[in-house]
Amino acid sequence: MHLPMQMKAMVLTGHGGLDKLEYRDVPVPALADGDVLIKVAACGVNNTDINTRTGWYAPSVKTALTEEIGLRGVSAEAQDLGSWDRASLQFPRIQGADATGTIVEVGPDVPRSRIGERVITDPCIRDARLPALSQGVLYFGSEYDGGYAQYTKIPSGNAVKITSTLSDEDLASFACSYSTGEEMLVRVNLQAGETVLITGASGGVGSALLQLAKRRGARVIAVGGKSKEQAIRALGADHFIPRERSDLFEAVTEIVGLREIDAVADVTGGPTFSQMLRVLRRAGRYVSAGAIAGPCPEIDLRDLIYKDLQMWGVGNPQASTFAALVGYIERGEIKPLVARTFALSQLREAHTEFVSKKHVGKIVIKI
Q: What domains can be seen in the chain, in order of their start residue?
């Protein structure tokens, strides 16, 4: 097919508010060895987009990711702005981790038979020479231009062929949130019959975790906004605790009838963190992949030490986890949950909707 020289993209010009997103014409990416070019059909919105744009990842930022920060960025006093791994970003940058579309061109050493494949992007760009849990060296849409554009390039191995009757918008809801959620459950080795507490259960990763935990046969205690209880229960939650309750430990005992549980999958952090450790049984497992409710919570080390707890942080899902996720999608074992779609030119409006936290599931950009 004839490829244009220019394309429309939403470009991040620096850390700050919504004004840092500019809809403009940019060159279509040039391919190097190992790359493929994707004509993007849709791309999901994720917390990492907001965190990076606003500068919330800076170590000097100690507060929750509030709606005000989401709209305006962190204060000008934060001098250590960076990406999720605290490295400096280069601007301009095209964000967007969850692209889906069709391969339309390949680099010199990639088989041309890949042209025409429908793919989703595995956003974790790895260095296979490193140990398994440290292979993630770049993130698509963060340290590497992503999918908020008409075309995007990515290493061939990160453009994963998928066979599905789901729409482009549905497929764009999976990659980042569901691979993160599945990796969290892999780390804690969640088993059928075990009980897991999931925070932020209405968000992208939280709603993914809920489905993925139920797929494993686990009992799920979901924490979310009171107004979203019906939607969260519809996803399969066995028990629901309103996030408005500050007494999480007492709520687990009162609502669920348990004093100890097997695992916590946490995507919020914040003031109830210490209670999450308190509800775990001896040798219980805690895993975190987010801290938007507060990145610097108080911890009672006596829970960690004297209960022999196990704790993990997840920022880079493994390639095997993403491959398993694609299988779940193709077999219909998990379902998409798209709350709303926006056009690429409306990304500022999509971010505004995202940080309001009124939705359940994913917000997706249709290219």
A: 6-174+336-366 (3.90.180.10), 180-313 (3.40.50.720)
